[in-house]
Design goal:
The structure holds two protein chains of two kinds. By secondary structure, chain A is mostly helical. Chain A has four helices and no strands. In chain A, 74% of the residues lie in helices and 0% in strands. Classes of the chains: A mainly alpha, B mainly alpha.
Amino acid sequence: MSLGGLCYSFWIVCFLLPSFYSQADDRDNLPWILNKTLIQWLLIITAGINGAGAGVLWTSQGKFISECATDENKGIFNSIFWAFFMSANIIGNLTAALVLKSGSKQSNLFMLFAILAVFGSLLFCFLRLPNKKTGNALG
Amino acid sequence: MKYTNIGQVIIMSVGFTTLFTAFATCQNFASKVLSDDGFDNIGFTTLAVLYLVFSLCSFLSTAIVN
């Protein structure tokens, strides 16, 4: 398990990539003044990169939680994670409804979401190695 | 029952919450907004490409994470 030390430094770098690409995917909705076919291809390409990053993101998420948890509390750690994650849907759709209802433009909404995505991805920088006091940590 | 690493889990959960607040809502909006802006069905196409690459890269991502 101690070989996870080197894994995690690579792994947190891998964590950053999909978040920035999802942010780039949002940003491409903005400039519809630009060339249309360029935007279409950019959308498809960034969607592909975003999907590649999302695979890494979800795999590393499962690895991180299972390394943080012990056998007794792996259930509650996963439930905490999913509670936060599903509240993201509630908050996001409510803010979208409020922002669009208040009459502001779509571009403002996507700017807000891009900033939120960058902020969320920067939070992954602050993750540290989980300290293991018990032996069998991988659930 | 000890909760030794619960701070790390909460930090990661807050990160996921802010990230997917943006992403899930944009995903809901993508097909409607893009068809409103003059791109016909590109929202559905981009979402299909996204999840296609996602499902393919999930096989490979274990090697990347380790």
